[in-house]
Specification:
heterodimer; A: 225 residues; mainly alpha; 9 helices; B: 255 residues; 11 helices; 0% strand; elongated
């Protein structure tokens, strides 16, 4: 993969990472968006769509409420697509999932670290904030956004580096049935996470009946196709 | 009391733009407070012009705006508009602080139900269905546009409603359209995501044959049971990594 493409993925991953919390929360951080666009950058929309769908299912396991800690799947999906694209044959999905899940965990930890740095910065500026100095307020806010941008860039860069390492050392070491097993594990755990997360969201109230109706309808359409 | 100047629309626009960054300085002490203060500041500039107090009212209002706040990011505008309007209307400072505190819970709960557990999974579920049916990149672009029409409309409505109602902002939260949207979003989300799951399962498993399909069914059933019964300890990312590790080990040992 050329350096230009890696840089484009880095820029896209950074934008995606910024979108999750800081600016503008337009949901380009959702894997279903981050993956296909990463695929389009690499000229491989199919892989991007596959991994976008896979990580979107993992995303259903998360509700980003308040101070909860959660994995960050946006830059993770970009790294996953990078890993899967260059892995020849059917290894893509499993290898991409492995790289993406590790990157997602790192992303989640980095969010917590940035929030702690923001807390320290706010404490340092407490006197000026209580005095109502608008310039200090705006500088503090802008610095925090820059910090998050840097965080997103570092997470994406780590993910892309991990993708390179995975391609170099894992691709080719597994026999064909091992590759199939890896793909089965990736798809199976994503479907399990998506179903469990959605059911938690739906709860036991009246929406459960609508969920059941949806599952029946979706199954019929899948059967008829 | 200082009535806002007539040209408030550009200031509301500036405040709206800043609201898109409201969580940029999220921290464990004031949570969204700093972002709220930054978004409110353009609406407070009229207070600066009051020559009698040398800008004291403006600075006090800016300081109050940056105090602790936490709610759903798309609905923060309601608190920003309401607090700014209350500052102009000469509402006592402790009452403005109480108003902000009182808005945290309802705005958080409403936004979580309406957006995080409603509009977002509903539109993303539609995108998943469209991809599974083969619509490709156009489905993704449609998702981004449709989702953000609702997103931007909600942010703009929240800011306008807060600015219109001021300290009486609770009236805005009782609007029938909002109540109906909240009531409908849960069932609509459940129906769409329920329909998406089997279609996505078919789409992702289309490359598997024979024993791999049986193994996939076992992984889904086992994984779902583990996530459901061990929900306090097990997350999707941990399950995924554990399954991949087991698969790699078995695949490597398999003769």
């Amino acid at each position: 993969m050329s350096l230009e493409l890696q840089l484009l993925l880095l820029v896209w991953g950074t934008l995606v990472g910024l979108d999750l919390v800081s600016v503008p929360q337009a949901m380009i951080a959702r894997p279903i968006v981050a993956g296909p666009i990463a695929g389009a950058i690499l000229g491989d929309i199919g892989t991007g769509l596959q991994l976008g769908v896979l990580f979107e299912l993992f995303q259903y396991d998360i509700l980003p409420m308040g101070a909860t800690r959660y994995p960050e799947y946006g830059p993770a999906t970009v790294a996953a697509v990078s890993a899967a694209h260059a892995a020849a044959g059917t290894l893509g999905l499993g290898l991409g999932a492995l790289v993406g899940l590790i990157t997602g965990m790192v992303g989640g930890l980095s969010l917590h670290a940035v929030r702690q740095l923001n807390t320290r910065a706010v404490r340092r500026a407490a006197v000026a904030l209580e005095a109502g100095d608008p310039r200090v307020l705006e500088r503090l806010h802008a610095a925090s956004i820059l910090r998050d941008g840097l965080r997103a860039a570092v997470v994406t860069a780590l993910g892309l580096a991990l993708a390179q390492v995975a391609r170099a050392y894992l691709a080719g070491t597994l026999p064909p049935h091992g590759i199939a097993l890896l793909n089965v594990a990736a798809v199976g755990s994503a479907l399990a996470a998506g179903a469990a997360g959605t059911l938690r969201l739906v709860g036991r109230g009246p929406s459960l009946r609508w969920f059941a109706a949806g599952v029946v309808g979706g199954t019929i359409v899948a059967f008829l196709r | 009391m200082s009535r806002p100047s007539t040209g408030t629309r550009p200031r509301l626009g500036r405040s709206l733009l800043r609201l898109f960054t409201v969580q940029g300085s999220w921290n464990y002490e004031r949570m969204q407070g700093v972002g709220i203060g930054v978004a409110e500041e353009p609406l407070l500039r009229d207070l600066r012009g009051d020559a009698t107090d040398n800008g004291v009212a403006y600075r006090a209002a800016v300081a109050r705006g940056a105090h602790f706040f936490n709610a759903h990011p798309y609905l923060c505008g309601l608190a920003v508009g309401a607090a700014a309007r209350a500052e102009h209307d000469g509402v006592p400072p402790d009452q403005i602080e109480r108003l902000r505190t009182a808005l945290c819970g309802p705005l958080g709960s409403l936004g979580d139900r309406l957006v995080w557990a409603g509009w977002l999974p509903f539109t993303s579920g539609l995108a998943l269905i469209a991809v599974a049916l083969g619509l490709g990149l156009s489905a993704i672009l449609t998702f981004v546009v449709v989702y953000n029409v609702g997103h931007v409309a909600l942010r703009w409505w929240a800011l306008r409603a807060g600015w219109t109602y001021g300290a009486q902002v609770a009236q805005a939260l009782r609007q029938p359209v909002l109540q109906r949207a909240t009531a409908l979003s849960g069932p609509a989300m459940a129906l769409v995501v329920g329909a998406a799951l089997p279609l996505v399962a078919q789409h992702l498993s289309s490359a598997f044959f024979g024993w791999a399909r049986v193994a996939l069914a076992a992984v889904v059933a086992g994984g779902f049971a583990l996530l459901w019964w061990q929900r306090a300890r097990l997350t999707g990312v941990r399950l995924g990594l554990a399954m991949l590790a087991v698969a790699a080990l078995v695949g490597w040992l398999w003769p």
